[in-house]
Amino acid sequence: MTDAPRGKTAPAGPSTMRNVLLVVLSALLLAALAFLYLKTEAIDLREKNEVLALLRELKEIDSRWDVDVLRVRSELAPAARAPIDRAQRAAQALDRLARAAQSTDSGALDQGLADLRKAFAQKAELVEAFARESTAARRALQAGLGMTVEAAAWAREARRTGPGRKERAALAETAAKELDASLLRYHHLPDDAQRRAVDAAAAEFVAAAAVLPAVLGNVPGQIAAELQKLYQHRPVEEGLYAKLAFLTAGPRVDTLTGALNREVEQTLAEKEQFRVYLVYYALALLILIGYLGARLRATNIGLEQRVAERTRELSDALKQLKESEAQLIQSEKMSSLGQMVAGVAHEINTPLAYVKNSLGSVKASLPEIQSALGENDKLLALLSAENVDERQLNEQFARVRREAEQIRGHDVLQSLSDLVRDGLYGIDQIAELVTNLKDFSRLDRSKVASFNLNDGVASTLSLARHLLKGIEVRRQFGKIPDIKCSPSQVNQVLLNLVTNAAQAVEGSGGVITLTTRAVDSSHVAVDVADNGKGIPPEVLPKIFDPFFTTKGPGRGTGLGLSIAYKIVTEHGGKINVASRIGVGTKFTVTLPLALPAQPAAA
After folding, report:
1. Is 510 within 8 Å of 472 (Cβ atoms)?
2. Long-range contacts: 250-256, Cβ < 8 Å, 24+?
3. Is residue 220 part of a domain?
C-alpha cells in the first residue's frame, strides 16, 4: 500500500466505512431494544390501587352521607351531629386524589376529577342547607309538640280542680291532642292537605283555649308562631331532600372507577403484546451478539494488555508522587529549621556564656585553694616527723590558719557552689534545645508514640524562643490525656502555627495565647491565638492551599499550612481557623486520642 500524497487526506477505506456502519447499526439495535423494554416494563399498580382506594373511600363517604341525610329526615329531634361533617373528609379525599392524579398517567382520571369535585361540592352545599333547614324545622316541631303536651296537661288539671270548667277543659285537652297528632302527620308528609289539617286543629285549639284564658294564657299564640316556622322550613327541607336524591356524586365515582379499571386492563394487554415482540427480538440479538463476540474477543485481549500496562504506569507514578510528597514535607521542615538556626545559635550561646564565666571564676579560685592545700600538706609533714621544732610547728599552724581564714573570708566554697550550679543550668538549657531540635528534625515520621500536647507546646515554645522576643506568651494548659500520634509531625504543626502567630504580631504589644483542652472523651485540642492584624475574608478560604502565601518573596513557600492540614487530617483530626481584621487570628487543632484505622505513615 502506498502512502497518501503529502498535504492531502487519505480517503476512508472500506474497513473504516464498515466500522461506521457497524456502530450505527448497533445504536439502532440498542434503541429498538430500549423501546421494546420500556413498552414491556411493568406498570406501577400501587398508584392505581391508591387511586381506586381513594375512589372507594369517596363512594363510602357518599353512601354514609345519604344514610346521615335519611336518618336526620326520619328523626323528630334535631340531629346531635350534623351530616355536613362528611364534607371535610370528602374534600381531603379529593385533595389526595388530585395529588395522586399528578403522578398517574390516566386520561379518565384527569377528565373526571373536575366533575367529581364539582359534584361533591354541590352535595356538600345541599347537605349543609338541608341540615340547617332540618334543624330549624325540628326545633319548631319540638317546641310546638312540647306546648301542645303542656297545654293538654294544664287542661286535664283544670278538669280536676274546677268542676264548673270540666266540659270546656275536656274540649281544650282534646283539641291539644288533635293538634299534636296533626303536627306529627305534617312532619312526616308536609303537603297542602296535612297543612290544612294542622291549621284546622290549631283553630279548634285556639277556640277551646279562649274559654280558659287563665289556664292556657298565651300558649295558642306561641304555638301559632312555631307553626309559622315549621311551615317556613319543613317544605324547604323536603325540597332539598328531593334534590339530594338526584345528585350524581355516587354514580360519577362508579363511572370513574370503571374507566380506570378499563385503562389498566388495556395497558396490561398492550404490554403483553410487546413482551412477545421483545422475546423474538431478544433471540435475534443473541445470535448477533454471539457473532460479534467472536469478532471482539481478539480485540479485547489486546485492550486488556494495554490496560494492564497503563495500570502499572499509574501505580509507578503514584508511588513516585508519594515519595515526592514525603520529601516535600521533610524539605519544608528543614526549611523552617534552617530559618531558626541563627536564633537557636543565639539561644545556645547564652547558656554557653554561663558555663564559660563559671569555669573562669573556678579557675581564678583554684590557686588560692591550691596554696591552702600546700600549707596543709606541710603541716601534716611536720606532725609526722620526729623531734619537730615547736616554734616551726606553731608558725606552720599559723600559716594554715591564715590560709583557711582567707578562704572563708573570700567565701570561696559558696562561690564555687554557685558557679557549678550556674554551669549546670546552662548545660541543661543547651541539652533541652538539642533535644527539641532532634525531636523536630528526626526523619522517623511514621513512628507512633504516646504524646502529650502540653509537652509538645512547651517544646515548641522553647525552640521558637528567639522568635518570641518582645511578645507576651500566655500558656493556658488544661489537664489532658496523652494521644497516640507521630510526635515529630505534631511538633511540626505546632511550630508552624507558633511561627505564623509570631510573624503576625511583629512589634510591641503582641500577645500569643496557647490553650490546651479536652474536647470530649475521645478528642483533645490546642488553640493558637494572636492579636495580630488578622486575615482578610477573601484570603481566608485559600490559606490551606499549597504554595499560597501572603508573605513577601523569600519569606515563605506557601507549604507550611498546607502540610499542617495534611498532617492533622491523616491523624484523623481537623484544623480550623477564625480571624477578624484588626483583632487577630485563632487556629484550632483537634486530634483524637487514638489514630484511625490507617494512621499517618511516611
Report:
1. yes
2. 250/59, 250/62, 250/63, 250/66, 252/112, 252/115, 252/116, 252/119, 253/55, 253/58, 253/59, 253/62, 253/116, 254/59, 255/112, 256/55, 256/108, 256/109, 256/112, 256/113, 256/116
3. yes
DSSP state of 473: E
Compute CA 54 distance to the chain's CA centroid, rounded to the nearest angstrom: 35
579 beta partners: 585
Q: Please tell me whether residues 456 and 512 are part of one structural domain.
A: yes
Residue 232's nearest CA partner among 129, 137, 131, 127 is 137
The Cα 423–Cα 426 span in angstroms is: 5
Q: Which helix (H) or strand (E) holds 579?
A: strand 574-580
- Cα(first)–Cα(last) distance of the chain, in Å? 57
For residue range 536-552, list pLDDT tens digits in order: 888 888 888 776 676 65
User: Considering 402, 433, 464, which residue would you say is the last residue of a domain?
Assistant: 433
Same domain, 153 and 230: yes
Q: Which residue type, as a one-letter code, is found at position 96? A: R
- Provide the sign of the torsion angle of the four alpha carbons 145, 150, 154, 156, taken in this order: positive
462 with 552, same domain? yes
What is the C-alpha separation between 103 and 193, in angstroms, rounded?
Answer: 58
Domain around 193: 141-235
Residues 410, 488, single domain; the answer is no
Cβ pair 83, 140 in contact under 8 A: no
d(CA 489, CA 600): 9
Q: Is residue 573 within 8 Å of residue 596, measured between CB atoms?
A: no
The sign of the CA dihedral 296, 298, 299, 304 is positive
Which is it for strands 472-477 and 523-530: parallel, antiparallel or unpaired? unpaired
For residue 179, tell me if it sits in a domain. Answer: yes
Low-confidence ranges of the chain (pLDDT < 70): 1-15, 39, 41-45, 79-85, 161-165, 211-217, 248, 292, 295, 298, 322-365, 368, 409-426, 428-446, 507-508, 547-548, 550-558, 598-602
How far lies 206's CA from each of 155, 156, 181, 600, in Å? 13, 16, 16, 109
Let me know if residue 421 belongs to a domain.
yes
Q: Considering only CA atoms, which of 502, 503, 529, 524 is closest in space to residue 514?
A: 529
Close Cβ partners of 222 (under 8 Å, ≥ 6 residues apart): 143, 147
Residue 311: per-residue pLDDT: 83
Cβ neighbours of 156 (radius 10 Å):
14
Predicted confidence (pLDDT) per residue in 147-205, tens digit: 888 777 777 777 776 555 677 777 877 888 888 888 888 888 888 888 888 888 888 87
Q: Are residues 475 and 549 in the same domain?
A: yes
Pairing state of beta strands 449-451 and 483-485? antiparallel
